[in-house]
Each structure stands twice: as C-alpha cells, then as structure tokens.
Amino acid sequence: MTERLRITEVHLDSRVTVVTVTGELDMDTCPLLQAALARALPRVAIDLSALTSADSYGLTVLIAMHQHARASGGRALVCGAGDLIRAVFRQRGLDRVLELRPVLAEAVAELRAL
Fold first, then answer.
1. Nearest 10 degrees: Cα torsion 82, 8, 42, 106
2. What is the pTM of this model?
C-alpha cells in the first residue's frame, strides 16, 4: 500500500499545513490521506502536483476534507493538480466543489492571509 502512495506533511506554522500527495490515491491508499488531512486542520493546502491517479474513493476523501474544514471554521485548498487530475475534477464536477488553486504558493499565501 505505502509504495503506491506517499504523503508528506509540513506544518508551516501552528495553523497552516501543507500535505503533499505523491502516487496513486485509491480505495487501498485513501486511509493514509484521511489520517494526514485530519492532522492538518484547521488550514491545509493539499498539493496534488505529484498525484498520478485518483479513483472515486480518493476523490471522496478530498470532498469530505473540504466539507469538514469548512464546518470547523478552517479551509482546505487543493493545488497543483496536473492536467489528468484536473480533467477528472471537471468530469465529475469537483472543480465546482473543491477550492482549487494552480500552485502551492498561492494556496499557502491565501491560507496565511485568513
């Protein structure tokens, strides 16, 4: 499981965390992302620039995190998604649900400004 997905957490300060996702996000690997995102609240930038694939289970984790962050007064910004992942987001309407930013620096700056 862990060979296919690697997650890195960097706490920039007491309120902003960057979670970088590398590899394949699917039914078997999404619990790793769930755990990392739960630790990352209240403000998290989810860097998907190295994500190679995501199935419906993985996408559900991103939606749930977005909703949970909002409900708890935080923010979850998804950034750096490549062409393939952005196409998946568009096909499933997630580009209208998730807060997408083109690059990590933009997401971090926005989270710090809150």
1. -40
2. 0.94
Q: How far is CA 18 from CA 8, 36, 80, 97, 110, in A?
A: 8, 10, 12, 20, 13
- How high is the pLDDT of residue 3? 77
Tokens 């590398």 sit at which residue?
Answer: 22
Residue 73 near residue 51, CB atoms below 8 Å:
no
**How is residue 53 written in tokens?**
């694939």
User: DSSP assignment, residue 78?
Assistant: E
| Cα torsion 98, 6, 31, 43: sign | negative
CATH class assigned to 5-107: alpha beta
What is residue 1's predicted lDDT score, i.e. its pLDDT? 44
CA 66 → CA 1, 4, 77, 110, distances in Å? Answer: 24, 24, 8, 15
Nearest to 34 by CA among 54, 10, 58: 58
- The DSSP call for residue 95 is G
